[in-house]
Structures are given as structure tokens and as C-alpha cells.
Amino acid sequence: MKKNILVVDDSALMRRVICDIINSDSGFQATDTCRDGLEAYERLRQMKYDAVVLDVNMPRMNGLELLEKLQNEKIKATVVMVSTLTTDGAEVTLKAMERGAIDFIEKPNNLVETKGQRFREKLIKVLSTVTNSESKQAHKKNVVTKVVKPAVVRKLRTKDASSSKVVAIACSTGGPKSLQSVIPFLKAEMDAPVLVVQHMPAGFTKSMADRLNELSPLEVKEAQEGDVLEKGHVYIAPGGKHLLVQRLSGKEHRIVLSDAPAIGGLRPCANLMYESLLDSGFDEIICVVLTGMGADGTKGISELQKEKNVYVIAQDAETSVVYGMPKAIAETGLVDEVVPLQRVADTILKNVGVN
User: Whose CA is closest to 232, among 214, 244, 248, 220?
Assistant: First the structure.
């Protein structure tokens, strides 16, 4: 059965192009369209859709106002934003995710790009991700909800004051909002730096880092080439760059950013971040896998645990927007704890400690 999609945009041309793209795929159909947020609000009060493709700037009621109204009235909708690739667009996108949007797609700059294959592929991919059965809690079956004990139990030496630690987080779809339930609840005095790979395009990760920095007691920044890792600091991989860790003299480490090709369509790729920690001088590596489609992070962690003292934390199915990445690592048997999103920060701090 085809998934029903609602398209909301004040541009008749954009509505037609998006509907044509959706209807060209055998798995979807653009059931209805609306010209603004007010029309969409009235429609969503009465009908359920598998997903909503929502523009930001519209008359009468814009996209953010619609999301806020849906949130306040507890009207459930799976919303994908169409956002411009600008600084202002990135900030609006993050606000949209705070108000309940699940994912976003970059809005083309012109008609040629709008009708191009790249935009079509991105739109269908995002819709496939957010409407996938694994992203719908009511349809989840046979998911991993308990820890599968590894063959060899790894224990962190958290009481050893001399041991050096690092936290490495991987997330994708649903990650920006989920990170707001983790990073702000860490402590500035935590005994480790934090690395984050969130799948986002260039231009969006800076706004996300700035927003998290406003909300958090510890310093959060978009990682830059040569940054020396400091405890109580969070380094977010820039969109369009792989984040790697390089060991310096003694216990010091620095960030290296790479323009190497995307891995499985991903740049940044969490697998590369984890694999770069193989040559690090950290005694303990806390790997955290949050919501996201696919299996990024699983290969890197699997390689890392062969050489390093690793502790793996995975988000549970119930609180994941898309239970793909956490499920993939949980099924390997390498996960030490499966926890709901609201317990991730405490679990990190329990294993890292504070100064």
C-alpha cells in the first residue's frame, strides 16, 4: 500500500514539482496539498498522513507556527521540512526540529535543481526513512530492547584517576533534537572530551553546535582543524567533513578534518571517527549510538573494541525516532547498556566521572 503524503507550500510550482516527484515513486502518493500552515492545520486535525512535506515561509501561518500549534494541541504528524541552505535556513530548521519536525531536505536554489535527479533522490530517501516501519513505534517487532551480553565483558576503570577517557557519539535522523536531551545534561567538569558525528550537510552543523552551546554548561563547538581535545568540551563534526582524532605527544589529541569521499553516502561518517581512535592514547572510550537510519558506527565500534577498552551505550527502540543505528550495534552483542534517551547523559557521566 502506498504511503500518503501531504505537501504544504505556498508556491503552486513547488507543490506541483514535489507532488510529481512523490507520485513518481511506487511507494508514495501525494494525497493532498495545502497553500499555507492554516490550511494544513485544519487538514491535520481531521486526517492522518504517513508524512508531511512542509515549507517554512508561508502566509497566514508559517511552518514553525504550524509545528508549534500541532505540538501544543498534541496533534501527531511526521513532518519533513524543506529548508534553504543558508545560515538563517539552518537556524530555522533547528527550531523546526525542536518543535517536532523529524528531518529536513535542502530547498533547491532554482527550478532546474528542483526538477533535477539530486533533489528527487533526496526527497524520496528522506520520506522512505521517516515512514519506514522501524521509525513507527507501534509497528516495531523483534527489536532489541535488552542488552545482548558480549562474549567478553568489558569493564571501565572509572575509579582510576590516571586513566584518560573520551566519549564518541554517533546519530542521524532525529539526532539534532535527541542531542538536546543529552549534551545539555552533561557536566562541564566531566572527565573527558566529547566527539559527535551527526549526519547533516555543511552549513547546518554550525547552527546546531551554537544552539547546543547556548543550552549546555559545557562548551560546544563545530570542530575545526587542529582543535586540541579538552575535557568538558564537545566537538561536532562539520557537515561535509569526516572527523578524525590524531594522537600528539603524551596524552594530547587533536582534531583532523578530512575531505575523503563519502562512505555509503555519509560525510561525516561515524565509522571513520571510531576507527581513528584505534591509534589514540585514550585508556577508555565510551561509544554512544543514538537514533538514526542505517548502521553507521557499528563497523567502527566493532573494530575499536578489538584493540581498546570500550564501553558501548545504545539508545532504546521506544525513544528512537528511527531505530536503525542503535539496533545495528545492539545486535552485534557489543552493547553494554541499552537505555532510553532521557538516561543517556547520566549513563555517560556514570562511566566517565567528573573532576
Answer: 220
